[in-house]
Amino acid sequence: MKKKLSEMNYEEEGRVESIEQDLKNKVAGMGIRVGKNLRMITKHPLKGPVVVEVGGAHTSLALSVADRIIVEVKK
Amino acid sequence: MKKILLMGNPNVGKSVFFNRLTGANVIESNYPGTTVDYTKGYMKGINEDFEIIDVPGTFSLEPKDKAEEVAVKMLEEEKEALVICVVDASKIERGLYLILEIIERGYPVVLALNMWDVAEDKNMQIDIEKLKNILNIPVVPTIAISGKGFKELVLSIKKVASVEVNEIMEKVGEIK
Question: B62 — contact with chain A (CB < 8 Å)?
Answer without folding.
Answer: yes
